[in-house]
Amino acid sequence: MADLIEEIIARARQERRTYLLEHECKAILRSIGVPTTNCLVARSEDQAIRMSEAIGYPVVLKILSPEVIHKSDAGGVKLNLGREEVREAYNELIARFKGRNVIGVTVQEMAKPGLEVIIGATRDATFGPVLMFGLGGVFVEALKDVSFRVIPVTERDAQEMMEEIRGYELLKGYRGRSADVASLKDILLKVSDLVTTHPAIKEVDLNPVFAYPDASIVVDARVILEEEPSRQLFAAPKADLSAVFEPRSVAIIGASTTPGKAGFNILENLLRLGYKGKVYPVNPKAEEILGLKAYPAVDQIPGQVDAVIIATPARVVVDVIRDCAKKGVKAAIIISSGFSEESEEGKRLEEEIIEIAREAGIRVVGPNTTGVFNAENRLTSSFVPVDRVTSGNVAFIAQTGLFLGVLFEHILSSQRFGISKVAGLGNKADVDDADILKYLAGDAQTEVVAMYIEGLGDGRRFLEAAREVAREKPIVVFKAGTTAAGAEAALSHTASLAGRVEVFEAACKQAGILRVHSFEELLDVVKAFSFLPLPRGSRVAVIHFTGAGCVIAADACQREGLELAELSPATVEAIGEITPAWHRIRNPVDLWPAIERHWVETAYGVAIEAALRDESVDALVVSVFAMPRWETYTPDFELLRASGKPVLFCVEGNEELVKEAATKIEGQGFPVYPQVNRAIFALSHLERYARLRECLAQGSCA
Ligand code: ADP
Ligand code: MG
Fold this sequence. Notes:
Blueprint lengths: L1 H13 L4 E2 L1 H10 L8 E3 L2 H11 L3 E6 L12 E5 L4 H11 L7 E6 L5 E10 L3 E8 L2 H6 L2 E5 L4 H10 L3 H5 L8 H17 L3 E11 L4 E3 L2 E5 L16 H4 L3 E5 L8 H12 L4 E5 L5 E2 L2 E2 L13 E4 L6 H11 L3 E4 L9 H17 L2 E3 L6 E3 L4 E2 L10 E8 L7 H9 L4 E6 L8 H9 L6 E6 L5 H12 L4 E5 L13 H5 L2 H12 L2 E3 L2 H13 L7 E6 L2 H13 L3 E2 L4 H8 L12 E2 L1 H22 L5 E8 L10 H7 L3 E7 L1 H13 L4 E2 L2 H22 L5
Parallel strand pairs: 12-13, 12-16, 16-17, 17-18, 21-22, 21-23, 23-24, 24-25, 26-27, 26-28, 26-29, 29-30, 30-31
Antiparallel strand pairs: 1-11, 2-5, 3-4, 3-5, 6-7, 6-9, 7-8, 9-10, 9-11, 14-15, 19-20, 19-22
Bound molecules: adenosine-5'-diphosphate (ADP) and magnesium ion.
């Protein structure tokens, strides 16, 4: 059967066709066990009639021509033909396409009406082959109601693809019509397999597939071939990144004596933060910079140089890299800009640099970036002044060069979770997101990975690396730049529907990546992971000081897929003791009546203790207020920690007092949010990841 497929492809290539004809596609499908309407090729009127008799009426006639791709648009499809109509239909088709390269007319059974589904495969520029599923007809045309997964897909992926579309309800059954989900899933898996095993196939379009309650059948099929056999992406063996993050010695090339210049600031940052390694300024015109002896070139430094930070003008970087190769440098962080991001000439320079570096085994970060930071050895390559750093368990990977500068400062000054590593990747000429992810998988300091992505080079490597990391550590991604890249002049329907955003989204699901949609959400979620244990389930208790807060919290729980815990009788009783008799205790708990009677210490104390002890509560969200003439509640942190459950706070009120309270609470390792819905949003990601990790561990998500 593999031979049959190869044979059909070879014949098409011989005839200089880049796509397969309907009867060829259907032969391939049948050979892999996908049911299709039979498809005989008639080359004369009489033949058409004989075939129709054999198939049984009613029949369908379609033009078969390498010049007619969209058959019905061109008037090349005749449906529902009885015995008397075949001859005329045949002649009409032949007459209509006179003068074109017509091979014949296909004769096929008229499939009984079913739910129309489209199944397809196409190639994404970043992720390679992807699979698509959607409801056919108006649903695809008008609503673009389709879902994607990167090929190869698992059974679970196939199932999720169907559940994801808005029309899933129609598949399951609507007004007596339903679709056999199992047979559709089987087709999805077989198409995934077909594309995987035959790299010559670029696109597949099964449009439509008719789905019935007990079976599915492909009614029309189209296969587009690669122009030339696809090449496997060149994967050079690359050295690991230890020299990038853990060099024992660093040279700053282009070190400057002028305060404010990049080459000065980098050196100053290294000294101020106390980098635990040797530092060598390189500048042919200086004797000494910031008290350190300067060298004219990297190969004149006496000892070993593990890494260099390059801040020279772009045009001299090629020479610098040559010197580095001679010196045996293992990592180069290129701060300089003026490369592929700017001009063709810059692109050429960048390629030359990478070629030299690859040959010499030098890993390159950048160019056009602020580079890296490592809290452990206090290494930084940033030219933006950094005064202090809180060490911790969160690693950031970001595309933007300024990340290690301005945004880093924003995090350091506004957040109280700590940082382990930062990688600003710039142009990603060599080191990319996948490389950093692989490194972080083995980094003991990193427990959470936050990413800001604009574009990816090799999506498949990224997917694999992310999948590996996500088994152990959550990855939270904020992807910007989601404007769809148009698939112009796409031959297949599938290709025209496969926007970059949709495919990226699908890949994230397959990798176990958590996606957020703003920088604020990224920090909110990462903070929760940084501070808290994962919940054992999805049942949340919320304690709030107003009824409005309770309503907002309940809405947020529902929106984010969390459950409001059913409080146990013991919990209701305990809180009932401190609240007036008329007040009915339920979750979310409106604590105000209790606060009015006993004030915050007792009211919050009793409610929190009861909720944490409650077996039916997996996580707790507590909202407190910070007001000028009122005492702010301070939790019993020991009690919170001892519970082993994630507890998130929300503090509202006077801006300065809020900040004071938040500092105190976060200082004890519990995240604080300005509004209860943001706390619940963050918590929902902990819960999602807890579920995801379980299924990644079982291997069923992979
Ligand atoms: P194209 O996509 O090239 O325009 P199709 O072969 O998909 O042509 O035919 C157009 C439409 O005709 C299909 O969407 C389907 O609704 C209907 N159709 C085609 N072939 C059959 C068949 N064998 N049985 C029933 N309906 C069919
Ligand atoms: Mg069609």
